[in-house]
Amino acid sequence: MTTIESTKDALGQARTRMEKAVEDFRKELATIRTGRANTGLLDSIRVDYHGTPMPVNQLGTLSVPDPTVIVISPWDPSAVAMIDKAIRTSDLGLNPASDGKVIRVPIPSLTEERRKDLVKHIHKVLENHRTAVRNIRRDVKEAVEKLEKEKKISEDDKKRTLEELEKVTHQETKKIEDLSALKEKEVLEFK
Q1: Are 77 and 103 in contact (CB under 8 A)?
Q2: Are 94 and 43 within one domain?
Q3: What is the CATH number for 64?
Q4: Which of 66, 101, 113, 141 registers the highest number of CB atoms within 10 A of its CB?
Q5: Domain ranges, residue 49
Q6: Domains in the chain: how many in total?
Q7: 105: closest CA among 77, 78, 86, 79?
């Protein structure tokens, strides 16, 4: 953490770091399967493309023609087999089919048990990110208290800053909880 010289620095840093935690949570949720096709599902897959690990979305065009299929159209036809292999060996449990030019990845519907496991995973990820936000709040709070102790800010400034810090913390935590609730609803939805 960079040094904090003023209450404005403290709040700015808290906001930035908390927003990064929310964005990280959003990205992590995108990789969780819901039974509905979503190109974000393949974001974590790296393809060994001529010795270089590359994300699938940098090797071709990804599209979702219907809610149960992701279609990958590689720019280089020689990459079809490599992409197919990377998806098969991933821990997503997907079974792609290719015709030599295009790869179709059917997204099977989830079993009730798998849905419950995914919801548990979402709750675990949610708690980790809530903790991250609380840790950021604690770090910034300590820095503000240190500023007051060193007589760089008044007690009133400290009080105002800590109140504002609480507001920011609640806002960012609510964003995380809302994202979690939305994803949970998506996972539990039956087609």
Answers
A1: no
A2: yes
A3: 3.30.1360.40
A4: 141
A5: 39-106
A6: 2
A7: 86
Radius of gyration of the chain (CA): 22
Question: Parallel, antiparallel, or unpaired for β 69-74 and 97-98?
Answer: unpaired
If asked whether residues 26 and 117 sit together in one domain, one would say yes
Beta carbons within 10 angstroms of residue 98's beta carbon = 16
Alpha carbon distance 108, 187 (integer Å)? 13
Q: Give pLDDT tens digits for 105-155.
A: 888 877 888 888 888 989 999 999 999 999 999 999 998 898 888 888 888
**19-77: per-residue pLDDT in tens?**
999 999 988 888 777 767 778 888 888 888 888 888 888 888 889 888 888 999 998 88
What is the percent of the chain where pLDDT is above 90? Answer: 31
Q: Rounded mean pLDDT of 176-182?
A: 93
The DSSP secondary-structure symbol of 78 reads: G
What CA–CA distance (Å, rounded) separates 97 from 95?
Answer: 7
Last residue of one domain, picked from the residues 76, 106, 136? 106
d(C-alpha 30, C-alpha 32), whole Å: 6
